[in-house]
Amino acid sequence: MSNRKSLLAITPTYNYFVKDQIESISSDFKSIDVFVYHNPITEISNYLPIHELSLFTKKSLIEYSGKPENVSVSTVPTFFIPIDYQYRHLGEKHYRKILNMIVQKKREPDLIHSHFVWTSGYVGARLKERYHIPLIISGYGYDLYDLPFKNPQWRERIRGILNDSDCIITVSNRLADYIRKLDVNTPVEILPTGYDGKRFYPRDQQACRRTLRLPEKKRIILTIGSLVKVKGHIDLIHAISELEGRSKDILCIILGEGNLRNELQKEIKKCGLEEVIKLVGRKPREELPLWINACDIFVLPSLNEGNPTVMFEALACGIPFVSTDVGGVSDIITSKEYGLICECNDCMDLCNKMLDALNIKWNRDAIQSHALQYEWDRQRQNLLEIYKKFM
Prior knowledge:
Layout: E1 6-11, H1 16-24, E2 31-38, H2 51-54, H3 58-61, E3 71-77, H4 84-88, H5 90-105, E4 111-115, H6 117-131, E5 135-139, H7 142-145, H8 152-164, E6 167-170, H9 173-181, E7 188-190, H10 205-212, E8 219-224, H11 233-244, E9 250-255, H12 261-270, E10 277-281, H13 288-294, E11 297-300, H14 309-316, E12 321-324, H15 329-332, E13 339-342, H16 347-359, H17 364-371, H18 376-388
Parallel strand pairs: 1-2, 1-4, 2-3, 4-5, 5-6, 6-7, 8-9, 8-11, 9-10, 11-12, 12-13
């Protein structure tokens, strides 16, 4: 691809998989403009302990470290109260804000890539109509399996946005099925989120534990995710309660922040698991490889997912992955060599799979080798092949 082209990326975040994806292709473009939505109301959480808002502060949404010089990241401040009525009308607000920024900055992009269908996809569709340039929309999870099925109005809105795009990228076969249910005519490509191989790779477990001041002789179970209902932490607590009765040497660590923190803490106390389950909050991204390499197994108890980035990151570190059968997990955990899959909302099945995983002698090299195909340096070429069809 000619590196004289310009890309416009519209996204609600510039960290984790969106950041990795954009930076992996930066050398293939003259310039990439990234517009990140930001609700200034969330900054209240810098002064008040409002955990659910802290996930959406400017500091949480954007990670500048390592950003290439030809990637420009701009926040799009848009005040709105996070309720359904205002959320339904947010697309037009975001469109007007971004249009003004494009005009002021005198940008002339050759391609638009919207990350998530609402509101990024809506903005992308309006800009495509105005500037007559190709639009690619990536759908990652709730914007495909949840939002369009809330009511007929949301269904038609999401369906219309997807039909206005030139190509839809999604991260799993299961999410592609949701798109088909919407009767969308736009071509669909499946591209897993992948991981950053420069950060996530096998490291010495005991050295990582010493760095993090974790017990060296415990069998550590780790999960990483926002403390929200869909992540299934309540099920994990109940499964650990059962597991602790069978194995006294376990420690479960939950990384993340969110509005269920107090509820989860109460449930842990109710189950008498204060010494077994630790809520350690949100950690800097550069620490995550240490936490993953410090554990014996990684568990994902989610009730729904797109294609969890933490799955690729855990596998890349050679860590076996125990998960509910959600999103694209079964697309990736294709063998019991890499991990175990259990039923959703089944605490006993989750408990049994975790116990099995703790007792298996895993081939960490085989797990890491399986993950290599999803590293962003390799996924980059697949993404560029999609772009080439429209540029």
